[in-house]
Amino acid sequence: MMDLSLSEIERLEAAFGSPLYLFDETAFTQNYHELDAALKKQYPKYQISYSYKTNYTPYICSAVKRLNGYAEVVSGMEYEIARRVGYPSDQIIFNGPNKGEDGLSALLEGSIVNVDNLDEMSAVCERVKDFPEKSFEIGLRVNMDLGQSFTSRFGMDERDIVKAFDLVKEARNLSVVGLHCHISRCRGLQAWQKRAEIMLGLADRFFAGRQPKYLDLGSGMFGKMDPVFEAQFDHVPSYTDYAFVTAKLVADRYAAVSEADKPILFTEPGTTLVNKYIDFIGRVDAVKTVRGKSFAVLNCSEHNLGETCTLKRLPIKILHAGRQTKTYEGLAFVGYTCLEQDVMYTDYCGALAVGDYVQFGNVGGYSNVYKPPFIWPNCAMVARKSSGEYAVIKRRETYEDLLQTYSFHE
Ligand SMILES: Cc1ncc(COP(=O)(O)O)c(C=O)c1O
Question: Has this prediction a pTM greater than 0.90?
Answer without folding.
Answer: yes
